[in-house]
Predict the 3D structure of the following.
Amino acid sequence: MSFSLTTKQLEAQRLISGKQTHTLLVGGSRSGKTFLAVRAICVRAISAPGSRHAILRFRFNAAKQSIAMDTLPKVMKICFPGVIAKWNDQMGYFELPNGSQIWIGGLDDKERTEKILGLEFCTIYLNECSQIPWASVELVRTRLAQVVSVKVDGQEARPIRLLMLYDANPPNKGHWTYIYFIQKRDPNTKQLLPHPDDLEWIRLNPDDNAANLPPDYIEKTLGGMSAKQQKRFRYGEFADANPNALFADETIDKWRHLGDIGLPDMVRIVVAVDPSGSGDADNADNDAIGIVVAGLGTDGNGYVIEDCTVKAGPATWGNIATTAYERHAADIVVGEGNYGGAMVQQVIQTARPRTPYKMVTASRGKVVRAEPFSALYESGKIRHIGYFPELEDELTAFSTIGYTGAHSPNRADALIWALAELFPAIVNPRKKPQQTKAPENLGAGSWMS
């Protein structure tokens, strides 16, 4: 199998080979950042017998699934077909014939992290840095200390240069990746770094890697995203920081569930509807009907399961909501009753008679309703199953000074209704969470009154 780096990847490879210790590969999705960093580590491991290298993500299961089971074997097969990298599942590392080891770890697993950080490495690679807190970075850097020699072109052995690699789909400018690599400041003190030349960064985007991507990925998959999402995932640009944001992109990323581990069983599943009042025809200019499915897992965490939001009249959205109810074996449909009163209940039960329904009433503004759930997101109690670009755009537009989005946050409003039903103690501390299937006609209810 023939292999060659793209022009941009060759530029990045030359940068990695420079004199600096710290190098950030930042940019859009599927730009080849991870492949390039793993390849650089494999080159160093092959060149320096007995050397140790670490590839770390925030969560171990994600690191194992993405790196150990996918990217690293692929890199070895394509770039170094004659070298066997043997995986030690119990210890969590690959061992090469020359005795070099490439450890795979997660910073969320205390036991594994302690085992890894009890060693010294000559290369450390932090993958998906938008998920990793700065305190963890500072801790990991103390292990970049292995002294190991390498021969180059038959010359006398010399110590291999210590190297730390980082990559990220760029979060906002308040994140440590921007402060440290772009501004060259200490993320804690914000003081200028004493050795700024020891840091370099380069942007790699999917357009630079088009030769290795499916034909429609860039234009249709990435091109179909919102302008905000394209800025991050296609063009690899840092977003402006919003110090007042209730929900941050990096927080959602940090706890996102991407199938690296199994989902827990769901104790309770809710379909939530935020109506706009659009009719069956001529609704193109009306707001969308927010329809979101969320569940409460046996692990105590909330999971955003599906966004079914649609621009349509009652005959259509009623069918979409009740179909989602059946598809996910949900316990109840909840709907906001300020607009249209009992209209939502009528639409739901016309589409599917005897569907358990609860009408909820907002007595406070959107931001006030959303604010209690900010802490749940921060602590990882709410996790998105996959990506929901439009919904996440609306969530990140909520701030302590108001909603800053361009359009009404119908998707986010529906999600907040669902979370309020799953976590009633958040909005009403005296109320205990419901653990069983809801009765069929709950009637009207209210919260945060």
